[in-house]
Design brief:
The chain has helices spanning about 50-55, 60-65; strands at about 15, 25-30, 35-40, 70, 80. The chain is of the alpha/beta class. It has one domain (about 10-80).
């Protein structure tokens, strides 16, 4: 299994985090390429119709990832 849109490496390099009581939105990070993707899990709520707005509302997750040395690899929030 690859590393999604990050570096294409194995799942052992991947992990994710999310804000307190906010598991609908998560940040998937790759320790190999130091990239991250911000993801909306539509199985837990939310709608892909509002991804642009949700991306702005979850800017604090970008700040946490960037403070930890990760670089955003996709221009917007991804919905799954």
């Amino acid at each position: 299994m690859g590393c999604s849109l990050l570096c294409g490496r194995g799942p052992e390099d991947l992990r994710y985090f999310y804000g307190e009581e906010e598991d609908t939105y998560r940040v998937q990070v790759c320790d190999r390429c130091s990239g991250y993707l911000k993801i909306l899990d539509t199985r837990k709520g939310g709608s892909v119709d509002a991804l642009a707005i949700d991306d702005i509302l979850t800017a604090h997750l970008d700040l946490v990832a960037e403070e930890q040395g990760y670089e955003r690899k996709a221009p917007r929030l991804w919905g799954i």
